[in-house]
Amino acid sequence: LSSSKSKVELFFFKMNVLPILFAVRVLLMAEAFILNQDKLDLTKHKNWPLVYHDENCGRSKLPLARKSIGGRKADMGEYPWIARLVYRSFSDDGELGGCAGSLINGRYVLTAAHCCFDDPKNELGMGLAYVKLGEYDIHHIKDCFRGNCAPRVLEVGIENIIKHPLYGKKAKEALPSNDFCLLRLIQDVEFTDYIQPVCLPSAIEKDEKNLYDMILTVAGWGTIENFPQSRHPHALQELDVVVK
């Protein structure tokens, strides 16, 4: 393998593993922030109205099949907030999927800052191009299961990439938890049974939920086998993890 190809493969291997850790980190970070800011009422923040507050956020609107014990494949439409990030080569316009993110309202996707790069001078020679919403099987433009078909996958361009201001900095205030990024989409997204926003924690929940030692479910298209060679699934996968 060439040096540049090896770098790309290594980077996207990490990106397919790290979203799982990132999903748990966001939850821990949110809880730690809430627990340490007893006097802070996030509902008073000027951007609070931008967060989706419908009581059905974070829920699939579709009837789901019964799971087999130990199963890894998610049901079609089970995680309608999952966004798949797509990168484009600066040299030949080739495209490659990498990170995942979560739709948090009709205009923004939350993901990891290390997934957000579009500088033509970066060593990988590619940049973040757009996101896919309503994705399930990456080999299909339109997914169907037992006669039930989802709408065509929605591809949405990115208007602005907003990284945490301390991400990548060596400042005293910089923390590993600064590894998050907001993607502002070029248009508002219309919600469907297969495209829905996830819920975000609020200060009101600080006395109601403690995530430590809880079993949470994460989803994505990450690596499911490392050796003898890495293997990536074509359908959305889910994994239970214990928060520590």
Q: How confident overall, as mean pLDDT? A: 75
Widest β-sheet, arrangement of strands = 1-2-3-8-7-4
How far apart the termini lie comes to 38 Å
| Spatial extent as radius of gyration | 18 Å
Question: Helix coverage percent of residues?
Answer: 10-25%
**Model regions low in confidence, pLDDT < 50 over at least 5 residues:** 17-38, 64-71
Query: What is the global morphology?
Result: globular
Q: What is the CATH domain class?
A: Mainly Beta
Sketch the major β-sheet: 6 strands, antiparallel, barrel
* CATH topology description: Thrombin, subunit H
Number of β-strand runs: 10
Question: What do you see in this structure?
Answer:
There is one protein chain. This protein is an alpha+beta fold. The chain has one domain (3-53, 67-242): Trypsin-like serine proteases (Thrombin, subunit H, Beta Barrel). It is 14% helix and 25% strand. The protein is built from 1 helix and 10 strands, in the order αββββββββββ. It has one helix at residues 3-35, and strands at residues 82-89, 95-103, 108-111, 126-133, 144-145, 148-149, 154-163, 181-185, 215-220, 237-242. The chain has a 6-stranded antiparallel beta barrel. The chain has a two-stranded antiparallel ribbon with strand order 5-6. It is globular, with a radius of gyration of 18 Å. The chain starts with a helix and ends with a strand. The relative contact order is 0.22. Mean pLDDT is 75; it is low at 17-38 and 64-71.
